[in-house]
Amino acid sequence: MELICASSLISCGYVVDVEKEVQSFVCDIFAKKGGRNTIFEIEAGFTSSEHAMDALDYYAARTMSKISRYTQHCSKFSLATPAIGFLPISKIFQLPPSARKKKIF
């Protein structure tokens, strides 16, 4: 799926790196165009065997973790999933970063 997405981005004029290391993590696709960069994460729904009994919670936590970590390193962040996929994105992450309020626990 990464190669399909990368190919589509290249045809739209992006310069693309697949599996690019950014700071302390590796993103699926790092794309540049017009002085801005976008990180794309492909979510296919992988769940490790340790989380077989709490797969949805694990998937939601992974998704939220990626959103919160990766958005600090790009102009734009996008998640991609197969057409049959479901992305459990918390309502707070549906707002632009500037509209989110910090909560201190």
Shape: globular
User: What is the succession of H and E elements?
Assistant: HEEEHE
Whole-number count of domains: 1
Task: Tell me roughly what share of residues is in helical segments.
Answer: 10-25%
* CATH architectural type: 3-Layer(aba) Sandwich
Just give the CATH class: Alpha Beta
CATH topology: Trna Endonuclease, Chain: A, domain 1
Biggest sheet record: 4 strands, mixed
Q: Nearest-angstrom radius of gyration? A: 15 Å
Output the strand order for the largest sheet: 1-2-3-4
Strand proportion, as a percent range, falls in 25-35%
Query: How many distinct helices?
Result: 2
Low-pLDDT runs = none
The SS-based structural class is alpha+beta
Distance between the termini: 38 Å
Q: What value does the average pLDDT take? A: 88
Find the count of extended strands (DSSP E, 2+ residues).
Answer: 4
